[in-house]
Write a structure and sequence with these properties.
The chain is about 80% helix and about 0% strand. The chain is mostly helical. It has one domain (about 5-190, about 205-405): Growth Hormone, Chain: A. α4 (about 70-85) packs across α6 (about 135-190) and α6 (about 135-190) packs across α9 (about 245-270). The radius of gyration is 20 Å and the shape is globular.
């Protein structure tokens, strides 16, 4: 394990994550304050999510050919450009122009986010010795969990900076900090990090094993379930329904994501050090579906809104964190080291597709059916995740092992 290179990649990912979380909260709270409806708020983030679909697919292919250093640095630089551009937003512009401009800068940020995430997650597979499954699970859980904890800090940072420095001032500060991080990563990371030994053909973008296709489908519905309530429903409900301040909303969202990140980091200990398989993913998804249904059922029975919602979402976050950690390990375990960027990019393309669907449904369901509509929609997606996960193999079936056993890619257990 090259701890030095892992530390550099992790530090760059942490810095990006802080700005990503802060940006989400800045845009959401700033434009809600300007009177934007839930559907319009959701539309501000649509290109952010949509661009992730394309970015993950082609970013993985690009990283396989040119190395993870290029895609990681590209993500950092694009995020700095997105933040700096958004700071130029003019309050005198019409709503149509303003929304279009914000959507364009969010698209750039979406490309940056998925380039950075794909590069960082793929780097773990490259840096951890082959066959060290327990170590791989621990390192990926640490990176993923710490990233989400810092994204929560970013939510708090966004609400705080909006109060302290205003919209444009906050964006300018974050853009400058990212440029410094980019310069450090550029000077310290090796040029060939994650570059495939054999030339990766374009047709390999969609040539995946069955196990990767199934896991990617489960990932789509898992993250769609989260974003159905997470993007618009709960933040707007806390502000409009419960009368919370911007700082209180940002703090709650921050604490939720921080707790979620802590659970992710602790997932190897929760599973007693055992590397998870398909059965673990199925059990975790079924538990999440049950937890998700419990919240709207409690509200329907007239239980107090605030305790049921906050307690239910805290439990949802803990179980969701375990689901996410298991998935993040399985995609690395299911793929060969030489194709890691390609396969991780494909998998996170499905992740971005789920976020896109969840983002749109969050605004639509909240506006038409309220918070309960968002929660029932999330339950439906978690139930589908559990159903898809039933088809995951109990252990990884790598192409080289399958060929030796005379089995076609990904079939069987």
């Amino acid at each position: 394990m090259n701890v030095r290179h892992y530390s550099i990649v992790t530090a760059a990912y942490w810095a990006f994550t802080l700005t990503d979380g802060a940006l989400r909260m800045l845009v959401l709270l700033h434009f809600y304050h300007l009177g934007y409806s839930p559907v319009r708020l959701a539309f501000l983030f649509l290109l952010y999510e949509a661009c992730g679909i394309v970015t993950n697919l082609f970013g993985g292919w690009l990283a396989s050919r040119m190395g993870l250093r290029i895609t990681l640095l590209g993500g950092l630089l694009l995020q700095a450009l997105s933040l700096g551009s958004l700071a130029l937003l003019n309050p005198a512009w019409s709503e149509v122009v303003s929304v279009s401009f914000v959507m364009a800068t969010q698209a750039l940020s979406g490309i940056a986010k998925d380039l950075t995430k794909m590069s960082s997650k793929s780097a773990i597979k490259v840096l951890v010795p082959a066959g060290a499954n327990g170590a791989l699970f621990r390192w990926v859980a640490l990176l993923t969990g710490s990233k989400n904890a810092l994204k929560g800090v970013g939510f708090f940072l966004g609400g705080f900076l909006l109060h302290l420095a205003g919209f444009a001032g906050s964006l300018g500060l974050m853009a400058g900090a990212l440029v410094v991080v980019w310069a450090g990563a550029w000077s310290l990371l090796p040029a060939d990090l994650g570059r495939a030994k054999n030339k990766v053909g374009f047709k390999q973008l969609f040539s995946k094993t069955r196990q990767i296709n199934i896991l990617s489908a489960a990932r789509l519905f898992l993250f769609g379930a989260r974003d159905i309530w997470f993007v618009v429903g709960v933040p707007v409900f806390l502000r409009a329904g419960l009368g919370w301040s911007f700082t209180e909303v940002g703090s709650f969202m921050a604490l939720w994501v921080i707790g979620y990140g802590v659970i992710q980091s602790a997932s190897p200990a929760l599973l007693r050090g055992r590397a998870p398989g398909g059965r673990t993913a199925t059990a975790a998804a079924a538990t999440l579906a049950a937890v998700t249904a419990a919240v709207p059922i409690g509200l329907a029975f007239g239980l107090p809104e605030a305790p049921v919602l906050i307690g239910g979402l805290a439990l949802f976050g803990a179980v969701f964190a375990l689901n996410s950690a298991v998935h993040s390990y399985l995609i690395l375990d299911y793929t060969d080291g030489d194709k890691v960027a390609l396969n991780v990019g494909f998998y996170y393309m499905a992740n971005a597709g789920g976020r896109l669907i969840g983002c749109l449904l969050s605004g639509l369901l909240f506006q038409t059916a309220g918070l309960s509509g968002c929660l029932w929609g999330a339950f439906g997606f978690t139930a589908v995740t559990a159903g898809i996960s039933l088809a995951l193999p109990s252990r990884a079936l790598h192409p080289d092992r399958l060929a030796a056993a005379g089995v076609k890619g990904g079939e069987g257990e």
